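Re: beginner question about structure tokens

> Can someone show what the tokenized structure looks like for a real chain? I only ever see the sequence side.

Sure, here's an example I had lying around. Input first:
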Amino acid sequence: MRTIPSVRSLFFALFLLCLSTSSRAQVSIGISVGYAPPPLPVYEQPICPEEGYIWTPGYWAWDGDDYFWVPGTWVLAPEPGFFWTPAYWGWSGAVFVFHEGYWGPRVGFYGGINYGYGYFGRGYEGGRWDHDRFYYNRSVNNINVREIHNTYNTTIINNSTTINRVSYNGGNGGINERPSAEEEAASRERHIRPVGAQHQHFEEARSNRELRASVNRGKPPVAATSRPGAFHDPNTMAAREAGGRYEPPANRKANSDRPPNAGRPTHANELSPHERFASPNTGNSKLDQKYQQQQEKLYAKQEQEHQKLQQKQEQEHQHLAQHNTQHNTNDTRRQQTEQRHQQQTQQLEQHHEQQRQQIQQKQQPPRQPQSRPGHP
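And the corresponding structure tokens:
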């Protein structure tokens, strides 16, 4: 097990200096660990619940004290034509850094990690879109063909039975892969961050003590679910076996780092994505269309503001890293930057929520006047 000494004042500087421009768009800044995540456990994929759901593989996440397993699950695609790029851990030269997954029109780089079930290190072999309909590859997915008819069968040689259990890119024993030009281009396209159902799924996994690696030793009792958050569903799958021996270092707290006030959002890319508005239904088609346009305009504006703040904060981290080359020389400056980022992020979150509430209030159907006694 590879461990390194922790120097809290240098963690941000060290890993940001080692990140490429293409990968920074995916990085959850502030989530870095000094030792590798466990190997990927061996588990079966639950049956697809219904048409339109896309498989998102399980992965190891970090809660500030221990790795914990986020079960693989089927998730309803947020838009027709969008695919899921899985999250992954990558060695930066100093620490392991977490790269958040995202939805987009193409599958980007996910560390060359072989998650199985269509995600074999490059791209996705589990299905394809035909206009607004998703077609499933039966050779790598668990599909009930009596209920889902839009399927095909293309045999993939590198299937989940021969999966490499390594769960991280780079470093000692990690996957030695780099993003291709196409994957780098995909990382720059329009993205949708994990949807609300995925965020809730993540939170439930984090609160489940049995999913912590130090408890299950790399063999989680809930390895995959049929739907996000369905941890007690009959179709839930336990891991058949751990992906390999896992013994967390005794001083694991000393080999990790989290930003101040880590329980609250500190950076723009730690915010949960907004759910899209529900379609207006006032009974007036022209008014509904007007309201729909207003909603889409606000959603696009908020996404733009979110990305702008995220880019600004990442540039400030990069600038800070370039000037923080001596031990502890800029620790006060780093703390001030983190506090400023937290304030910016929370103000943006509050402002966006107020905007959404205001537009929803304006679009409420007009109340019918109540008739007075003696009047029709």
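Each token stands for a local structural state, so reading them left to right follows the chain. Residues 268-362 form one domain.
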